[in-house]
Design a protein that fits this description.
The complex is a heterodimer of chains A (about 120) and B (about 475). With about 120 residues, chain A is mainly α. Chain A contains 6 helices and no strands. The interface between A and B is large, with 62 and 60 residues.
Amino acid sequence: MRIPAHLQQISQELALRSWVRSSSFPRETYFASVDIFKARIAIHQPDGDDPADSYELVAAMIGAAVNAEGALLTHALKNATCNIDGPDRWSRICLAAGWAVLQSYEHACNNGEWNHEH
Amino acid sequence: MSTEPQKPEPREVLTAEELWGQVEDLLEIAVQRGLEAASQRTRPVRHTQRVLTTNPQVTEGVDDFIREEMRQLLEADILPVGDNDDEGMFEEEVHREIIKKALVSLKSETLRNLAQELGVDKRGKVEHVAERIARVYRFDQHSIADLIVEHADEPEPARRFLDRLFPIATLPSLQSLCEELRWAMGRYVRVGLARWFAIQAVELSDSTLRIEGMIRSYKAFVTQEDDKPTLGSSVSEVPVAVAIHQDHRFVHVERADASAARSCLRALNAISKLGYQDSLPLPSPSFPDDLGIFDPHTVLILDAIYNRLPHADAHKPNLTVAKFRMQPGEDDAQELEEEERPSLRAVRFEGRHLLDSVPACQLIALEGRALVDLSLVVGVDSGQDGEEVRLPIRLSIERDHLAVMTGYGLRPKLAENFHETFIRLLERAVIDGVLDRHRLGSLARRIHSFAVAEEPADRPRMLEQ
């Protein structure tokens, strides 16, 4: 799984992977959220024949969570080079953050650092 | 008591309201989880740096954006049924479906490569791939149109220059031709079964004679009227434009299909003894080397794309569709059909860099089949900061003429200039034969060695040199 190309530049500009890995990031809460989101999406997508669409949906939900949390804006402000010129741009930043969290979650699952039993 | 939500029966169809309900449900959970994450933060928020923003309300509207994103994703798996009263919702759905349909007009392979370039999943049905690509562009019709134009492998009928080049036996005097054709203006010349051609305008200027006319043809059918069968007919009219340039041995028929163009030529020939030839006189010198095995049609096309295209400032040809004629000629094929024997008349290859494919090279070099139709994409210098514009072109050798099509690409004026230049080069190819015998011979050797090679090419290199 990788961040879609059209969001990769945003991800790099804002160093979103580092943001997700930082000690202040509530990693466990977000990973637990991913599990919850997946379970909820499975209800609405009974077929579940295309995991790629589920990834996108989970990333979008994490994006909404990140926006509600508010800490991403603080992080963006700390990255002085970031240019946020409207809601559309900010929405894409939130989506890119959603993907960064999901990527980190997948990595943790693959390394045995996280499973849904948490 | 279990807190796990109850899983409802799978449903393939939802009302639009139910779909929105699902989106709101998911969004609410997401926001709740975000607020919970905020309470887990260990460090206070500090605003210490600058941020460039023209809109202080940047974070407003994010939920709408994500709501829409989620709705589109959910919609990919279910079929929402809109309310008849909500025209706006239906129009939006129509808009999205039209955009997806336009995208699937691209070849499946092209669409999947595009998805890969954009970093979205390229797997699954083409419809789903198109949906993912459209989402990247937020279903913006202008961006999608540009994308399609840039990646079209063949010229689109509505956005292309099309000329059919009919060779004529003698160089006509444009002045006397003009007078002869004006005599027939407004009259109908029968050119086939229930088919007529009428000249509507003849104009001589700048060493070019321009003729505008109309093909009128009728379809006939049996219909029912007052309990009795009777004959009915429907008429169709196709405008045709013709240009004959001073000292050129070709008549150019613009924008018409092959049948209309032929009808027009027959009518003009009947009025003015234009010297229409019902077969294309291909140069067929005897080559002593590998080129000698190649069919004259193939030699003409290879000469056009390998020797002459660079003279039209076109580079990096990528052959996407190639059609080979498997029977010696249309008449022979017709005879075989009359004998009711199974026959393969043509083979069509689709892909990328087709001249680097072993089967195509075998048909050319080992079986000597006629390559009669070729679509390719070329890069043309725009003359602006080294920018190169991608143009789809198609070259087809018909029984009695050459058809040349050039897609508009993103720069129609540039495409028009290229088209005119390429046409002149093709005319010379028919009249003069191979432009650079040595260069084409080396290409023929590569094609032949490729045809007998055991390994396919790891990267396209056939047309590199």
